[in-house]
Amino acid sequence: xxxxxxxxxxxxEQSIYRGDVIRLIDGRxxxxxxxxxxxxxxxxxxxxxxxRGNQDVQYKIDNHQxxxxxxxxxxxxxxxxxxxxx
Length: 86
Known about the structure:
Number of domains: 1
Distance between the termini: 46 Å
Number of strands: 3
Strand content: 15-25%
Largest sheet: 3 strands, antiparallel
Order of helices and strands: HEHEEH
Strand order of the largest sheet: 1-2-3
Structural class: alpha+beta
Shape: elongated
């Protein structure tokens, strides 16, 4: 079951909500995924199946980082470093 969703992450953009039930990750039970077993997160998945209500919904995950993500995780910290430390 989904306990929380990063408001800036992929799941939030796909309208995955707290309380949705994760049925499959890449065609297998979520308990077979090491990131779920150890960290209770989903990472490196290509496809997930979520149960919402009485319906199963499949999502294909594109793991390519969008330009906005690159700006947020690379450019902003780099500019901050240059202004503060140099």
